[in-house]
C-alpha cells in the first residue's frame, strides 16, 4: 500500500485525503496550524489519520508521495528534507487529475483568474455538465470523487503549477503576467513568469493556449521558448486571425475559420480588463461548441465575483466599493482606472515587494484621501504623502471605514483596494472584504 502524506489540512488537503483513501492509499494529514473543526470531523468519520499544530517527521519522511498545500513555500525546511530524500512532492491538481478523463480548462494569470474562471463556468454550465474548482470553491479532488463531472474549469495559481508533473489542461488560459508573489520566487520576476507558463508544459498541438497578445511579458516568453500548444491570442488593439479581438464595439472570435461576433455594449462587467476576461471566457466556450446565443446571454447576465469591485452600499450619496481581492498593485491599477468619481482609497497590508509607481497618475487624478490599513504603513506613507492632502494610518477595518466615512463627501466613492496581502490583520482577503462590508453596513 502506498503512503500518501498531505501537508496542510485545508480544503485541498481534505479533498486529496478523501480521494487518496478511496484510491487505496494509506493517508496521513499533517498541519502545522490548526485544522478546522468541520474538516477534523470529516477526517475522523473517514478514519483518516491526522495531526495538527505540529509536523512529526518520522510520519512524514516515510511517504511514497507528498501533496503539499499551495500555501507552504518550497523553502520550508521540511519540504527541503522531503525532496532531499527523493520523495515526489505534488500539488492537489496534479494528484486529482490522474483520476479523471474530464476535459479540463485551466485558467491562470496574475489578475482576473477568479472572475474569468467563474464567468467561463457560468457560460459552460448552460449547456454542459461542468465543475468549478482549483483555487476556488470545493476542492478538485473532492469533486472528482463525488461528482465526477465530464468537464472542469480550474482557477490555478502559480503555487499550484509549481508542483505539477504530468498535469495538462486541454484548454489553458493565460490572462496576464505582472510582478506578484516575488517573495516566493527569490525576488526574480523570470522565475514567476516560468511558473505561470507551466500551465502549458505538457500540452500538445491538440491542446490550446489562449493568452493576452497585448501582454509584452507573455509575447517575449513565447518568442524565446518553444511551446507545442495551438495558440489562440486575444487583443484589444490589433486584428487577430485565429483568436479574439475587439473591432469597435464587438468582440470577434475566429477558430478554424468559424467566426462569432459578440457585442460589448451590454457586458455585465465594466472596464477594459473585463473585456479581456470576456474574450478569454468566450473563446473557451466557442472551442467547446457552446451556442453563440448562450455565450452572449451569459456575458450579459453574469453577476460578478464577491470582493472584486463589488458595490456594497450607497450612503449619503457616497458609493462604497469592496475590492479586497486586489492583493497586488496591478489589481488595484484596474480598480483605480475604473473610478470616475473623487475617491477615498483604503490601502495596505502585507507588502510583497510592491512598486506603486504605475498607480501615481491615477492617485494624482482621482484620489482625494488615503486611509492606510496595515500593521506597517511606513512605505505607503512615504510613497503617497506628497500626492494627497490627507493620508491617515489605521489598524482596524472599523476605524478605517469610520475615517473614510468622515472624509467622503456627496458624489465621492470609498474604495477598499489594498494592493497587498491580508495576513497581517485578517485571516484572508475574504475575511477582509466581509469585515469591510460589515463595517459599512454598521455606519
TrEMBL record:
One GO biological process this protein is involved in is:
regulation of cell shape
Report the EC code(s) recorded for this entry: 6.3.2.9
List membrane-spanning regions.
Answer: none
Instruction: Recite the UniProt keywords alphabetically.
Output: ATP-binding, Cell cycle, Cell division, Cell shape, Cell wall biogenesis/degradation, Cytoplasm, Ligase, Nucleotide-binding, Peptidoglycan synthesis
Q: What is its main location?
A: cytoplasm
Q: Where in the cell is it found?
A: Cytoplasm
Specify whether Ligase is a keyword of the entry.
yes
Q: Where would I find the Mur ligase central domain in this sequence? A: 107-285
- Pathway this chain belongs to: Cell wall biogenesis; peptidoglycan biosynthesis
Task: Return the protein name.
Answer: UDP-N-acetylmuramoylalanine--D-glutamate ligase
Lineage of producing organism: Bacteria, Pseudomonadati, Bacteroidota, Flavobacteriia, Flavobacteriales
Gene this chain is encoded by = murD
Amino acid at each position: 500500500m502506498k503512503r500518501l502524506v498531505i501537508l496542510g489540512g485545508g480544503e485541498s488537503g481534505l479533498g486529496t485525503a478523501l480521494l487518496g483513501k478511496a484510491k487505496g492509499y494509506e493517508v496521513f494529514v499533517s498541519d502545522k496550524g490548526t485544522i478546522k473543526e468541520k474538516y477534523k470531523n470529516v477526517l475522523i468519520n473517514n478514519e483518516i489519520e491526522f495531526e495538527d499544530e505540529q509536523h512529526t517527521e518520522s510520519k512524514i519522511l516515510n511517504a511514497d508521495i507528498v501533496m503539499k498545500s499551495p500555501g507552504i513555500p518550497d523553502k520550508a525546511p521540511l519540504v527541503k528534507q522531503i525532496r532531499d530524500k527523493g520523495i515526489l512532492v505534488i500539488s492537489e491538481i496534479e494528484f486529482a487529475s490522474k483520476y479523471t478523463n474530464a476535459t479540463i480548462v485551466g485558467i491562470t494569470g496574475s489578475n482576473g483568474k477568479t472572475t474569468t474562471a467563474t464567468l467561463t463556468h457560468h457560460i459552460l454550465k448552460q449547456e454542459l455538465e461542468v465543475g468549478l474548482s482549483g483555487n476556488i470553491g470545493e476542492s478538485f479532488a473532492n469533486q472528482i470523487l463525488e461528482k465526477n463531472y465530464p468537464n472542469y474549469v480550474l482557477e490555478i495559481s502559480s503555487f499550484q503549477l509549481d508542483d505539477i508533473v504530468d498535469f495538462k489542461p486541454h484548454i489553458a488560459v493565460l490572462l496576464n503576467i505582472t510582478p506578484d508573489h516575488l517573495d516566493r520566487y527569490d525576488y526574480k520576476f523570470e522565475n514567476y513568469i516560468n511558473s505561470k507558463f507551466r500551465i502549458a508544459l505538457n500540452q500538445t498541438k491538440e491542446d490550446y493556449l489562449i493568452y493576452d497578445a497585448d501582454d509584452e511579458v507573455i509575447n517575449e516568453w513565447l518568442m524565446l521558448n518553444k511551446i507545442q500548444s495551438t495558440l489562440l491570442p486575444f487583443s484589444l488593439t490589433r486584428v487577430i486571425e485565429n483568436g479574439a479581438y475587439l473591432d469597435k464595439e464587438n468582440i470577434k472570435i475566429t477558430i478554424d475559420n468559424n467566426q462569432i461576433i459578440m457585442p460589448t455594449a451590454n457586458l455585465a462587467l465594466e472596464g477594459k480588463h473585463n473585456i479581456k476576461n470576456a474574450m478569454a471566457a468566450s473563446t473557451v466556450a466557442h472551442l467547446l461548441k457552446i451556442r453563440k446565443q448562450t455565450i452572449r446571454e451569459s456575458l450579459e447576465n453574469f453577476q460578478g465575483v464577491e470582493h472584486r469591485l463589488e458595490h456594497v452600499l450607497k450612503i449619503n450619496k457616497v458609493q462604497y466599493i469592496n475590492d479586497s481581492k486586489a492583493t497586488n498593485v496591478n489589481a488595484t491599477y484596474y480598480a483605480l482606472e475604473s473610478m470616475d468619481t473623487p475617491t477615498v482609497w483604503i490601502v495596505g497590508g502585507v507588502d510583497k515587494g510592491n512598486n506603486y509607481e504605475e498607480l501615481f497618475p491615477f492617485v494624482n487624478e482621482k484620489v482625494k484621501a488615503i486611509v492606510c490599513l496595515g500593521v506597517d504603513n511606513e512605505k505607503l506613507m512615504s510613497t503617497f504623502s506628497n500626492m494627497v492632502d490627507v493620508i491617515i494610518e489605521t489598524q482596524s477595518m472599523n476605524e478605517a471605514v469610520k475615517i473614510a466615512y468622515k472624509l467622503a463627501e456627496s458624489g465621492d466613492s470609498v474604495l477598499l483596494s489594498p494592493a497587498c496581502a491580508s495576513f497581517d490583520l485578517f485571516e484572508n482577503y475574504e475575511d477582509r472584504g466581509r469585515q469591510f462590508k460589515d463595517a459599512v453596513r454598521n455606519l
